[in-house]
Specification:
The chain contains 15 helices and 25 strands. The chain is α/β, with parallel strands linked by helices.
Amino acid sequence: MEMVYVVDVDSVLDGSLRRLIEKGAIRGRVLIHRIIADYFYSEARKGRSTGFTGLSELAKVIESPGTGIEILVVDEDKPMVKDVSLETVKSIIRNYAWKAGGVLVSSDPLQIDAARALGIATLYSGEARREKLSIDEFFTEKTMSIHLKEGAPPIAKIGSPGRWAFVRIRDEPLSQGEIEEIARELIEAASLSKDGFVEIDRAGSTIIQLRDYRIVITRPPLSEGWEITAVRPVVKLRLSDYEIPDKLYKRFMEKAEGILIAGAPGMGKTTFAQALAEFYSEQGKIVKTIESPRDMRLPPTVTQYSKNYADLGELHDILLLSRPDYTVYDELRSDEDFQLYVDLRLAGIGMIGVVHATSPIDAVQRFIRRVELGMIPSIIDTVIFINEGRIEKVYELSITVKLPTGLREADLSRPVVEVRDYITGELEYEIYTFGEQTMVVPVKGKTVDREREVLERMVRRILPDAEVEVRDKTVIVRIPRHSPRLTARKLKRIRKLVEKNGFEARIVPV
């Protein structure tokens, strides 16, 4: 008696049906419901990778049936609707297998259980997950990422953050068939593995998190050819692995609640954010993350949210209601990202934001046009700049009312955001409004010069005919011996004024 098999969606999509046919495990008549092609077509029209992969696999099965196999496309019980959900498709196929008296071939355990409950014969096509993926062979211990492009030799980025080089893995270019097969395997593994998921599936691109790999797949029409980029963290660091001064450790423990981690791409920002999140979790703090994709490796005590499975309004509500001690936001890109960071910070939640920036002050400037100037120190109190995997600069922000450096008229005093090097305490930037513009003014090295100018001017107000010279921390005041304005009282005022400002006074008669 000829066996009759009815094909399910999953066995086509993951290639398990094709492999069973190639191995000769299936003999007889294979019935493929036309709704499977319609479903894959609908998914492909939406730009989803499951649609393109499914249509490709379906074509391979139909075009190369093998010996002893008769493949028929059937069209019974097909609903007259344009768009059918996956569950509806599975239900139609299950019911058709029951009516046809065939064996349902599926790699979906739930579909197999449902079919058996109806008394339908089944054949589970799923395979034990392979321990190794095709991309594993491209990685070594020092490989940070691989870049596979149709028509080009595969290359790898080898080294560590800030110290890496591109190395050609092989000389032969990748064919379209090779890269499509790798993409199909990755999508299948991410869909079925407990350690993976498809984070984003858009027209022309798919982003996958699978084990330690963050994988980006692009295809026409978005790109001119198929391309796969897989990134893997080379090391997992703890906060103790960084050279952190005790002063900064104390700030993390006691004060820092609006933290920005900045740096150029590939310099180790996310690695440091991951270490900081784990540090706070070990201190007994409730820590959550917002990621896109979720590629941080964190303990189970840290809940990781994806921006791609909820809108920012939903994440806003969840975090406000759950009230974590710290939320790590990786990465801040759009206006909506910055607004959510600001809202949560002003609500009293400790925030750790990760931003791309080529210098530490650039990270602060990303907030200037998005919030009022006077609010910035309430939102950001600590800026950490990461370069080549290490902490290169730490800024603290505060606000005061004063005369900005370089301005002379006292009535120009205004609110000024001071940006200081946290380790040395040295003032490096002042941010203030002047007219309708927001000025970000570097003042490192200029503060002492301004103090000298002010001091010289104040001495001359007391003795206009005096010559004033400032050398290091000494103020030399040269006074004409027979000056009619010279009195002991004025000399005393000059000495007191100079010493009050931290300088040593030398009065020289000339």
